[in-house]
Amino acid sequence: MNNSIVDKNWWKDEVIYQVYPKSFKDSNNDGIGDIPGIKEKLPYLKELGITTLWICPIFKSPMVDNGYDISDFEDINPEFGTMLEFDELLAEAKSLGIKIILDLVINHTSDEHEWFQKALADKNSKYRDYYIFKEGKEEPNNWRSIFGGSVWEKVPGEDCYYLHVFDKRQPDLNWENEEVRQALYAMINRWLEKGIAGFRIDSITFIKKDQDYSSLPADGVDGLVSCKNKTRNRPGIESFLSELRRETFDKYNCVTVGEAPGVPYEEFPQFIGDDGYFSMIFDFHYADIDVESGSDWFKRTNWTTAEFKELLMNSQHALQDAGWGANFLENHDQPRVLSKLVKEGFRTPESAMGLASMYFFLRGTPFIYQGQELGMLNAERTSIQQFDDISSIDNYYRSIEEGFTPKEALDFVNLRSRDNTRTPMPWNSSQYGGFSEHEPWLAMTEEYPEINGKSNSVLEFYKQIIDLRQNSNVSSILKRGSIEFLTDVSDNVVAYERSLENQKVYSITNLGTNVEEVQLPKAIDKILLHTHELNRTESKITLLPYQSILFN
Ligand code: GLC
Ligand code: CA
């Protein structure tokens, strides 16, 4: 008899590492990262201690949005390798005890996808209804796409437009069409059958559009209005998401991580509750603290640490009440966290450790984005020509259109560009950082001779925090314990308690630029982790800016 119990919540115990394949490791020296490169670096990831890899899109793609524009869901982009090489990566990772999850992009395809090509070629083909085409001499409404300009693109030679929430080369699939949904489900199941552990699910809250397709009052000088109002987390999405889960994920013991911006906290139970659509979701409420909206970078905020802390606490409470969260500081769409959350003059390895210690022990599954574990910084670029990211280019020109100077526009883009985290991974201080022997597709960060994978104190610290969460006598508390924030501390101090069956672990971090004195919630038994030199008495601890301590 097989009495092994299948743990449906195994993903709560994982530490997930995000790889941006184009920038991780180039194995054949063409300047572009690839699948054999990832395989080559598995021992590094094993030593780091992570248990699951999330690899950003590796499918066939013209790479307009670096793979988030898929032209064949079931083939590998030749720049990255072959299906055989992917299978080898999967097998090798498995032998090291590392699971792999892939990026599932099903809101849209590339315009080079066969379905879209057939839809364009023949207006009577059934593929027209795979996408959202509207007849007319003018754009059907005034919605602005996420990457700028109208969501509507004219079909050459016809009085007809198709809808794209992202770039014009990323036409949206028509989820109202049952045949489209079934085709996607079959594709998803084939990947799960192959043995991947699950998916990170891209832009999934955009699959339902308000069927009235009506205009709204403009919110910019371009006369357009953000399409999010009519295309993101709209009524009716529930039936698509329940069906998606039922037809695919439910049949496997897999993990699903939803990229679900725009979901209010009241709706978290539907998304991540016991019968929720996903295992966990990313919550962007505090990640986007520096901008009013993740897609309008000229709308910067003057955020304070107190506000950040408030958003973080709200987020953790909402996730705990509803289910489980995916905790992250960085990803391929965000700036480097050290540049975003730490004030100038304090961007040191110790501060990187302080941030790491602050977020890593929150309740949820921690995600680490490549290079975050090295304490990397944003790249400062001097001209818009140096950017690759389509949304950087759009934000630059939109800022100017909104009345900012080119210099201001460049500053906004430098602060927020998605290219900040897409720079090649620096493995060492040699030319091109050991990423490649060829000039990389995107320039390395300036500091790579100092900040790289060779002898790096932040990296050693990440190994320590991973080991504490995964393999120590406080692991179960850190993995499965509940969270409660301590309120008797300064606005600049994030302090929380994790507890499980009367056992507790405390985390206290100073996120401000002043020295803070904190009354300890109890006498320290054991210091599990600390970032800067300790200065404490029996009852108090004095924390330097960005200093963090974990104890029980
Ligand atoms: C998600 C991805 C982003 C991509 C967009 C369109 O937000 O994270 O990189 O550009 O979806 O697929
Ligand atoms: Ca390559």
Automatic annotation (TrEMBL):
The keyword Phosphoprotein does not apply. One of its GO terms (biological process) is oligosaccharide catabolic process. It comes from Enterococcus alcedinis. This is Glycosyl hydrolase. Residues 18-422 form the Glycosyl hydrolase family 13 catalytic domain. The keyword Disulfide bond does not apply. Keywords: Glycosidase, Hydrolase. Belongs to the glycosyl hydrolase 13 family. InterPro entries: GH (IPR017853), GH13_cat_dom (IPR006047), Glyco_hydro_b (IPR013780), O16G_dom_2 (IPR045857), SusG-like_C (IPR056300).
